[in-house]
Amino acid sequence: MKCYNEMSREELLEEKASLEKAYEAYKAMGLSLNMARGKPGAEQLDISMPMLDVLNSASDCTDEGTDCRNYGILDGIPGVKKMFADILDVQPDEVFVGGNSSLNMMFDTITTFMVKGVAGCKPWLTQEKVKFLCPVPGYDRHFGITEYYGIEMINIPTDENGPDMDMVEKLVSEDEAVKGIWCVPKYSNPTGITYSDETVRRFAALKPKAKDFRIIWDNAYVIHDVSDTPDSLLSIMDECKKNGNEDLPIIFASTSKITFPGAGVAVMACSKTNMDVLKARYTKQTIGYDKLNMLRHQRYLKDSAGLRAYMEKHKAVIAPKFKCVLDALDKEVKDTGCAAWTKPNGGYFISVDVLEGTAKEVVRLCKEAGVVLTGAGATFPYGSDPKDSNIRIAPTYPSVDELAKAADIFCVCTKLAAVNKLMA
Amino acid sequence: MKCYNEMSREELLEEKASLEKAYEAYKAMGLSLNMARGKPGAEQLDISMPMLDVLNSASDCTDEGTDCRNYGILDGIPGVKKMFADILDVQPDEVFVGGNSSLNMMFDTITTFMVKGVAGCKPWLTQEKVKFLCPVPGYDRHFGITEYYGIEMINIPTDENGPDMDMVEKLVSEDEAVKGIWCVPKYSNPTGITYSDETVRRFAALKPKAKDFRIIWDNAYVIHDVSDTPDSLLSIMDECKKNGNEDLPIIFASTSKITFPGAGVAVMACSKTNMDVLKARYTKQTIGYDKLNMLRHQRYLKDSAGLRAYMEKHKAVIAPKFKCVLDALDKEVKDTGCAAWTKPNGGYFISVDVLEGTAKEVVRLCKEAGVVLTGAGATFPYGSDPKDSNIRIAPTYPSVDELAKAADIFCVCTKLAAVNKLMA
Description:
Helix content of chain A is about 40%, strand content about 15%. Chain A has 14 helices and 15 strands.
C-alpha cells in the first residue's frame, strides 16, 4: 500500500470507497467492544482467585501479634510494607499501606497540600496561584484531580525518554507557582515509555523555586512487563537522596492490576518529612485501612520475589493482546503513514497518534461501529488535545478474538478519517 | 456504706486507709488491662469468621451483572445500599457505600466542605470563621477532625434526651459561622443515651442562619443493642423531609462493630443535593471502593433483617460485660455518692462522671494499677473537660474475668481519688 501523502486524488477516492465498504460491513455486525479503560480482562482476574482461599473461617488472622480483624495499625502490616519497599526501591518505614486505590491516596495527598500545605508553606488553596506540570499525553484521572482543585495545568511534551526536562527544569526553577508534576515514570500511561536514567537523574536534581514543589511519582506499572525485554527504571528515591532532595518525590503503586482492580491494596512512599505531614492527616482520617485484605495479599504473594514471579502470569495473558493490536496497526496502517504509535514493553496502553485533526473523528467512527475507545483528548489536561491526534488504546479487557475485530475496525476508522481529511 | 459527703474526717481517713490497702494489692498483681477504646473483643470477631468462607476461589463474584473483582461502580453494589437504606430509614439511592471506615467518610465530607463548600456557599476554608457544635461528652475522633481543620468547637451540654436543643437552636439560627454539629444520636458515644423523638424533631426543624449548615449524624450504633429493652430513634431523614430540610443531615454508619472493625463496610446517606457535591469529589478521588468486601458482606448478612438478627450474637457477648461493670459500680460506688453513670441499652460505652476535679487522677491511678482508660478529657473538644469529671469506660475488649478485675480497680481508684479530694 502506498503512503497517503503520495496518493493522487483518484487513488484516495478509490481508497475511500474501499474503506467505506469495509466500515459498513463492520457496522452491520452490530459489535459491542471496549478498548476504553485500562481494565484487566476476566482471564487476568481468574489468576488471583486462589487468593480468596487464603483467609477462611479456620485461619489465624494475626500478623506479628496483631489481630488483623480488629482496629489498629495506621500505616499497614509490616509484610506488605516490606514487599512494596523492595519493589519501589525505598525503605519499609517510608511506605504507607492504604485502601484499595492509589488514586485515592494521590487525591488525598493533593488535598492535604491544598488545605494544610507542606514544607511549612501556606496551604495551596490560600496561595495566589498554583500550577502543575502535566507531561502529555498523560493519565486523565491525574488531570481530573488537579482540575477539580482549580490548579492550572501546563502541558509538557514527552518523548521516548520522558518529559521534556529542559522545559521542566526551567518552569520548576523559575516559577514559584509551580507546585508539582504528574509522572507515570514506567510504562507511562498512555505512551508506554519509561523515563531514561538521565531523565530520572534530572528529576532528582531539580532545584525548585517553590519549597513546596513535589513530584507525584505514580509507579502504577512498576512490574507490569508485557515483553521479554522489559524496561528498567532508576530509583527516584535513591537519586533524590544523593542530592539531598528526598522530600521531592511522593511515590504510589498498587496491586490493582496484580490481584483485583476492585479489591487490591494501594501504597505510597515518601520521606519522613512528607510522611509526617500526611500522617497528621491519616491519624485524623481513619483508624486504619483493611488489614485483612493486606494479610490476604501478603500470604498469597509472599514477598517481592513472589510478586515479580506472579507478574509472569499476567504477561502471558496480556502480551498476545498487545501483539494483536500492534500487528493490526503494522499490517493495516503502517504503510499509509497516517498514524504513528508506541510499542511498549509493559503497562496497559498503546498510544496512537492519528493524522492531526482526526482523533475525535476516529473515536466517533469507532463508536458508530461498536468499538468504544477512550475519548479523544482525554490524555490531555482539560480533555483538550491541541493537535486532536492522540488516542489511547487499552487492549487488556477484550478477549483476543474481540480485540482482533476491534483493532481492525480501529485501523479502518483511522484510515477513513485520514482519507476524508486529506480530501477535504 | 455511707455517702462520702456525710462522713466525718475520721471516717474518711479510715476509708482512705482501706482503699489504699486495696489499691496496693491490685497494683501488686501487675495487671495489664485495657478499657480505653470501643474495640470488639476476640469472641465478637470470631462470630464473623464464617464470612471469610463466603467468597472463595470457586465463587461467582458477579453481582447483578457486575464483576465485583474489577473496576467500576462508584457508589457501591445495590444489595449493600438497600440493606443500609433499610437500617438507616433512607432510600437506597440516598446511600453511598465506601471503604472500611465511616470515620474516613466523615473526614472526607468535612474536607469537601472545607475546600469546595456546599449549598453554593464559599469553601469553609475561605470563610472568615467556621464553628461546630459539639455535644459533650462526645466522640474524641469527631472532635479530632474539626480540630485538625482549625474549626472552632463549642461545647453543647447533653442530658438523657440528647443535646441542649434550646442552645443548639439559638446558636444555629443566630450565628452564620456555625456550620455543623457532631451527633451520635443512638447509644451516644460515650453516654449511651438515645436522642428523644422531640430532640430529633427539633433537629429536623432547625432554621440555620448559614445555608451551608449540616448535621453530621453518625449513627454508628444504630442496631447495637445490649439490652432486651432497646431504644428507638426517629428517622432524621423522614423528619427533615417533612420540613423541607432534607439537605441538613448527612448520615453515617458501618459494619465495623458488626463484622470486622478492620475490614468492614462503611456507608453514608444524604439528599441528592449533598450527594451531588460529594460525588463530584468521589468521582475524582477513586474508581470505586472494595466491591468484593461489599459482596462478602451482602452474601453473608443477606439483608437488613439478617443484619438485625445477627446483632443478637454480639448482644450475647457484650451484655454480660456491660452488666459486669455496672454491677461493680452499683455495688462499690453507688452508696458513696462520689460518681454517677449511665446504664445504656446499647452502644459501646459507659460514661462515668466521677467527683469533679478527679477524672485525671482516677485515670492516672488506674494506669498505675495496670488498667488503661480513655484519657480524661478525651470526651471533650480540645481534650479539655472543664469539670475534670467525665471518664469513658469501654467494656467490650477485655474478657469478663479481666473486666471484673478492671472494674473493681476502677471503683477503688474512683473512691480513692474522691476521698483524697474531699480531704484536701
